[in-house]
Model the fold of this input.
Amino acid sequence: MTALRVLARVDAVPALQWDALHDGNPFVSHAFLAGLEQHGCLRADWGWTPHHLTLWDGDALVAAAPAYRKTNSHGEFVFDHAWAHAYARYGHEYFPKLLVASPYSPVTGPRLLARDTGARVALRFALERVTADAGWSSAHVNFHTDAEAEAFDADWLPRIDVQYHWRNPGDWSTFDDYLGAMDHKHRKNIRQERAKVARAGVTFRVLHGDEASDDDLATMYRFYLQTFAEYGNSPALTLDFLRHLAATMPRQLVLVLADLGDMPVAGALCLRGADTLYGRYWGAIASLPGLHFETCYYQGIDYCLREGLQHFEPGAQGEHKLARGFLPTIVHSRHWIADAAFRHALRDWCTQEAASVRGYAATLAASSPFKPPATL
Done:
């Protein structure tokens, strides 16, 4: 018989026990989640209060879900503002709600951390129980993996969205191999974009966390702040959190720094998993043709080809990624609404949304920059 414990801090669990329950995805690792909590990235006044669900067999951790009590939908990337407004018109408070996710990270990965489906199902029941007992409106599991889908029953409403992911079919070992799979127009455009950056005199350094100096980390953080300032948003991450990643995840933190002469002018912050590179943040203090694409996309593709990584996920949204070889990919989330009548009303809405998203993805796929497969 397993026992449920709801924890206010990830570091209440030994790191080895937590990390034994997932596949090495950096965004649900003990170091990443604990670092967010320890270094000022999660604030209750921004809507984030850790509320992690764990199942135990004595002193052995059986299953865990990185979960948060949310008082808004900030930093989630699965948009439910319309649901919140409708719930208010229905006469109920939508917030607080329970969210299972990696904060600020629209990245597919394990969310119901467990060794088997039975433990995942038990964790799903626990999510419903905790939500209902607290009187909260709903529970949400964002960007879960395909393998976790079978843990949910019909009461968990499915939603989908489109992201743009790069995948190596297995026969690309160089950037020219990747370009060679494209049609002439897109291949030419990418070469021209890269040439503009090279002619401007920009050079690149790709550093793992244990290769980056504190000045490198501080520089990347300044670029991060610059981007958030340009968009008028509040930055959630802190410099101490980046230092924490460099110290605790030294080979999973990847920085791409663009230098013009002796001065860094742009950078991209990435994390890597077993076979995937994840682009998360970028910033620049110079406006040069092609600099964004080179820093955020082409350097990342080069890195994947060198390192033998099969996938590159450069972040949510952005149709401009399609022309650079990032193809439309469906991502998934699940949602449990405590009020059965409201849940029923949302079911048709989710079905219609999914049909629209799949149609959009099909339209995008028809504009792939890659040459069609040869036919006999």
